[in-house]
Amino acid sequence: MARILVIDDEETLTYTFACFLSDAGHEVLSASNYDEALQHICAENVDLIFSDIILGGKTGLDILREVKARGLNSPVVMITGFPDARSAAEAVRLGAFDYIAKPVVKHTLLHLTQVALRHKRALDETEKYRLHMEAIYMSVQDAIIAVDHELKIVELNASAMSICGLSGGDMGRRLADLEMPCKDRVLAALRETLQSLQSVKLRRLECRRSGRPAMVVSISTHPLQGGSGTSLGAVLVVRDETRLAGLEQDLHERDGFHRIVGKSPAMQQVYDVLEYLADVETTVLITGESGTGKELIAEALHDKGNRSSGPFIKVNCAALSENLLESELFGHVKGAFTGAVGDRRGRFQAADGGTILLDEIGDISPKMQLRLLRVLQEKQFERVGDSRPIRVDVRVIASTNQKLKERVASGDFREDLYYRLRVVEIVLPPLRERRGDIPLLVAHFIEKLNRKLKRKIQEVTPDAEDLLMAYPWPGNVRELEHALEHAFIVCRQETICADHFPPELRGFTPSACATAPVQSSSPQDLLQALRRSAWNKAKAARMLHIDRKTLYRKMAKCGIPLEEAAGAFRP
C-alpha cells in the first residue's frame, strides 16, 4: 500500500481519485490548494503526488519545485484538462514523472500509479545503496579518489582531503592541475591502469606536503568498470603507512625502501644511511657490482630529500667520448666545434635545483676529471666555447662498479676528485651476499612482469626457487629480473618451473657454487638457528637469510619436527 497525495480544487475529482486509488488498496490524502499540499508534504511520507497544474495563485510546477528542493523521491504526476497544453509538456521537461488528462479513466489512473510507484521504489533502492556506499566510502581511512578518462576527479572521500591535501572544491578538476605530492607517479599509474585495465601498485613512497611532516604512503590504482564491463575511469587508493614504516625502521625489519626491495641486514644498513643522507647536502659515491641497483639508490636519495621537487638528471659517463661528454655535461655555444649549430644547455644546468647522477664515473678521462673537480669546488662552470661562468645549485651523486681506490693508486683517477666525490660512500652488496632477499625480489618482479606482459603468473616451483637461491648471480638483481622475464615468455602456465629459466641457470648445479650458504644449510645449522630464536620460525629464517617457506621445506627434508620439543632431534 502506498500513501498518495491528490491536489486539486475540484472536490469531485479528488473524490474520484480517492475512490479509484482506495479500491486498489492505497491510502489517499487530499489537498485543495498549495498551502494544504505543502503541509501534507512536510508532515507525511508521501510516495506519489497527483497535482492539478492550476492551483489558484500557485501552480503544480511550484509543487514540483518544492519536491525537488526537498530532495524527495516522490514522483509528481500533473493533472490537466488540456493534454496538449504547453504547460503539461513543460512540467515533464522540468522533472514531472508524467501527466494525466481529465476526465480520469480508472484503468489509465491505476496503470500510471503502478508505473510511478515502481519508479519510486527503484529510486529509493538506489538512494539506499548510495547512502550505504557513501557511509563506507567516507569511513575508510585510506584516501580514495575516483577519476574519469580525462583524469578529472569525480569523487573523493574525507581521507583524500587529509592525506593528499585535496578539498571538495577540487571535484571536476584535473589531477594534473593540482598541487599534490607524488603527482607525477600517481598520474603515470592512473594512465597505465586506464590503458591496460589492470591494477598498479607503488610501494612505500615518501609524501612531502608543505607545512607538515613527511609521510610514507603506498599507492594503488584500479580500473573502474560499469555493469556491462565498460571502462568508466579509475580509482586511486592512497594508504598512509608512516607509522608502520616507523615501526619497521625501529625494528630493522623494513622489506624495502623507496623502490628498493630487500630486508637483509646489509640492506637495512643501506636504508639507514639513505634516511640520514636524504636531506644532507653532500656528494655521495655509490659503489657496487653491475646490476646491484645503484641508480635506484640515487633516485631514493633524490626523491626522499628536500630536492625532490627539482629535476633528477642521469648521465652515463661511459657511453660518451670525452668531447661529447664535456658538451653533454656543461653545454656549448654556437660555433664551439664542428656541428655546433646553436647554443645547447648542458646536464648540470638542466639539474639546477635538483640532483645529477654521474653514472660510471670511473670511466671519465683525466681532462674531464679536472673539469669536474673544479665544478664541485666552485659550484660553477663554463660552456664549451664560452668564457662566461654559469653558477648552479646541484647535488652531485656519482656511481661506479670499479674499485676507484685501486685506480687512484695506479694513477688513473685523481685522488683529490676521489675524496671530493667520496664524502660519503654507499656500498651495495652483491646479490649472492644477500640471498635472503631473493624471494622478496622474485615476488616483486612477478608482480611487475604480470603488469608489463599482461600475464597471471602466481609463483615459482620449489625446485625453481632452490635454483634461484643457489645460483651465484654474477649480474646481480638485473640478471635476476631478466631471468624471470625470460621465464615469463617461455612459461605457458601460472607457475614457473626451473626449465623455464635461461640456459646458464638450467645448466647450473648447486655444488658448482662455492658461495651458496643457503644451499649448504645442514640440519645442524637449521637446529642452531631454531634454538637461538626460541623456535621462532620467522627469526630463524632471517638468521639463515632464507624465507619462511624455504625454512619449512628444509625442516621437512631433514626430518626436523615443527614443534619446540624437537630439541631431542639428532641429525
Let me know the largest β-sheet: 5 strands, parallel
What do we call the CATH topology of the largest domain?
Answer: Rossmann fold
Q: How are the strands of the biggest sheet laid out side by side? A: 2-1-3-6-7
Rounded Rg: 36 Å
CATH class type of the largest domain: Alpha Beta
Strand content: 15-25%
Uncertain segments of ≥5 residues (pLDDT<50)? Answer: 511-520, 565-571
How far is the N terminus from the C terminus? 80 Å
Report the helical percentage.
Answer: 40-55%
> What would the average pLDDT be, to the nearest integer?
84
- Count of helix runs: 22
Structural class: alpha/beta
Annotation keywords:
571 residues; alpha/beta; Rossmann fold; Beta-Lactamase; 5 domains; five-stranded parallel beta sheet; five-stranded antiparallel beta sheet; 22 helices; 25 strands; 42% helix; elongated; disordered C terminus
Write up this protein.
- Helix content is about 40%, strand content about 20%.
- It is an alpha/beta fold and about 575 residues long.
- It folds into five domains: about 130 residues, Rossmann fold; about 110 residues, PAS domain (Beta-Lactamase), CATH 3.30.450.20; about 150 residues, 3-Layer(aba) Sandwich (Rossmann fold); about 80 residues, Helicase, Ruva Protein, domain 3, CATH 1.10.8.60; about 45 residues.
- The strands form eight sheets. Strands 2-1-3-6-7 form a five-stranded parallel sheet, with helices on both faces.
- The radius of gyration is 36 Å and the shape is elongated.
- The C terminus is likely disordered.
